[in-house]
Amino acid sequence: MTSTLLSRAHPWLRRVLRPVLDPARRYRHAKVIHAARVALGLLTSIALTTGIHLPHGEWASITLLVVIGGLQHHGNIRKKAAERALGTLIGAGAGLVIILQQSYFHAPLLSYALIVIACAICAYHAIGKGGYVALLSAITIFIVAGHGENAIADGLWRAADVLIGIAIALLFSFALPLHATYTWRYKLAEALRSCARMHTAIVNDAGFDRAVLQQAMVLQGSLLVQLRSLMPSVAKEINVSMDQLEAIQHAMRVCISLLEVLAATRPRVDDEQAKAFVRDHLAEENRRISAMLIGMARALTHGVVARLAPRGTCSLARIAGTVAPQWAGYVSLTLRLSGEFDDLRQRLAAIADRWNI
Description:
Number of domains: 2
Subcellular location: Cell membrane
Largest sheet: none
Family: Belongs to the YccS/YhfK family.
Pfam families: FUSC_2
GO cellular component, one term: plasma membrane
Distance between the termini: 6 Å
Keywords: Cell membrane, Membrane, Transmembrane, Transmembrane helix
Helix content: over 70%
Order of helices and strands: HHHHHHHHHHHHHHH
CATH architecture of the largest domain: Up-down Bundle
């Protein structure tokens, strides 16, 4: 989408817009963009609430920080804003009921009891699914009602301020959105490049170092954790099911495990016959695996879906049943690794029109 807009724009406009529309640059400078967006949102909130002399306008700014301050990805912001709005409505309704009963009965002890009971109910639901909504409901009760002594007008204005803050946060989440999909793509590409380096080190005696391989495995584990945390937001942003993303995550995890096993079963350094066999019979397949990994990484980084095209056919199938027993395990693992990476390639290609934004 971005590339299409740039291609239709005037050359000078393309030069001006490319730094802010290019997904790779937005990913690299995500913290700066997020900080600028929050600052502009706060300026808008302050200008709006003070400009029209809105009572208790600071709550709009506080709400904006709650919704957007710690969330840079567009999918997260939308989800949190929806939960914040629901929690606000529940808390504001409960707070207004407490204010009404206080103004009618003038019984502070009853107000305190109602506040405690309402917050206890929220705390009960705050543990588990929907916990954020329950927590915000309890907080909003105090924002609107205080300890029950607030005036009805104050309670209504504070509820309105909170909703205004949510609206401003959503508005600025659409300004240069920092999609979780960008981070997911580039993190996955980084993991694939790391796999390519590990695979090259395993099949190439000169570049093999077990300590470096172990360090790479630790890095891969960290990347998988980061990828998993992004998946819910990615699923919402590009309308892909969690099952499809889970399948990609599982395939990546299996490939990393196979690489570790492949390193443990590789021919010994002093076994010249085995090394000659690997060099003569597996070199073509190893090159195909390396090209497949680099192709997937470049497709994710640059959005060139053509890089996900099949990289020929597996060259091991015709010899897998005829190899000597001492090399059969290594050949089988290479064959399995090639198949798993090819499966990952197909899964990425199947949803390329969704993540290539």
